[in-house]
User: Fold this.
Amino acid sequence: MNSVDKKQIVIIGAGLTGLTLAFYLKKQGKEVLIVEKSAKTGGVIQSVKDDEFVYEKGPNTGVVGNPEVAELFEELEGLCTFEAANPDAKRRLIWKKGKWRAIPSGLFSAVTTPLFSLGDKFRILGEPFRKKGTNPDENLADFVKRRLGVSFLNYAVDPFISGVYAGDTNYLIPRFALPKLYALEQNYGSFIKGTMQKAKERKNNPRLQKATREVFSAKGGLKNLIVALTEKVGTESILLNAKNTTVSKTENGFEISTEINGENITIQSGKVITTVGGYELGNLLPFLSSEEKAPFEELKYASVVQAVVGYRNWKGINLKAFGGLVPTIEQRDILGVLFTSSFLSGRAPKNGALLSVFLGGTKRPEIFEMEDEEIEDTISREFRQMMGMPIFRPDLFEIFRYKYAIPQYGLSSGKRFEIIGLIQQKYPGLILAGNIRDGIGMADRIKQARTIAEELN
Ligand SMILES: Cc1cc2nc3c(=O)[nH]c(=O)nc-3n(C[C@H](O)[C@H](O)[C@H](O)COP(=O)(O)OP(=O)(O)OC[C@H]3O[C@@H](n4cnc5c(N)ncnc54)[C@H](O)[C@@H]3O)c2cc1C
Assistant:
């Protein structure tokens, strides 16, 4: 059987980017169809609720890093509820020499913390007066060493990068991977001066004040954000289980061919927006030349293993914190642990705990290849030493693997962004979105989707 349809805009992928995009486009009155290969919407966002625990298989929390996040939740009021992490999440731990240490939160703790060397503590006083960098291709490790010193690299930025990118500071390039931080140095000459100036700008701009930098989820799990978006978009506008999708160029636009339960479906459209990973683009857009495909094939991803660990009755260390991150220099086998039930409500029974452990990343790719038993043994060993648990016997334990979890914005990103621009110019109506550009977090995805929708208005 073969059916042919016409749609104004086709979006490939029903993850957070595709759904948010479809939501805003439909609000403008556009006729949109999402083509999704899996049986569910949400992409990597998948929450699970059992009798005792609510846990995430993919991302656990985002950061309200831009007003678009707050505004999306405002739009979805009544369908899903924004949940800000409670104040415990302000406390963040770093593993150093056999102990969790809190990241300084004030002047006194900054002076007394054992995380940073005395020399670097003095050095930071000179940060506002340090010359700004002139090499746009400088890697993150060199960038941080130059401005703040080695101990800040090892015990602040390296573990932060493990938590966000599961990546390597020697590979990531600040102007692509942390553009806001890079801009502080370039525009204001210093992180400290720039942060103070930005705070002033925010004070005078009510919209910018919505970017609270709070840690967020949705009440009951991030899935509820996906359910709300899916409802707004409408299931009639989403084709699930669409296999072997390809896009071809026609005289007036594009033809999207896909296969659902053995039925071939063809859709004609003037606009196609892809939200898929770089590793999918070549097959999806076979008309691209090998030079055009190359930057996507070369895009490096961190593979990540996440394990949820739940206890009905927690007897280990004090969990009043966002979680703990482990610097590479400490040579342990986990990247970090999120203490989810400490700062989000209803995630574990009273007196219990729900934790997420992260392993692998670009520095430990071999962990992704391990059997489940080996991963469980690794977590068990680390938990006994790091989490105050003499015996590892959780009431909930599950492992999730992501081969292409987080794209790494290294030096080749400049070329990739340039080629995306050239492709979009050469094939009018084709937009390449998703985390191949514009950042890797949920807040970036929401902002990108909203921006594209506004550009198409
Ligand atoms: C383990 C993990 C932890 C994370 N932690 C955080 C975090 O703590 N905070 C944060 O802000 N962000 C985090 N992220 C990143 C965040 O989850 C993503 O930025 C965001 O959810 C990506 O949404 P997306 O729609 O762009 O992509 P995806 O969620 O990957 O969605 C893409 C969709 O496209 C579909 N698709 C792919 N190929 C095709 C095809 N050929 N045809 C049709 N459909 C196709 C896929 O099935 C999928 O549904 C994490 C990501 C992972 C994997």
Notes: Residues 97 and 203 are 41 Å apart (CA to CA). The chain is about 35% helix and 25% strand. The pocket of flavin-adenine dinucleotide is lined by residues 12-18, 35-38, 43-45, 58-62, 242, 245, 275-276, 280, 284, 304, 306, 402, 405, 434-435, 440-442, 445 (CB under 6 Å). The chain has a mean pLDDT of 96.
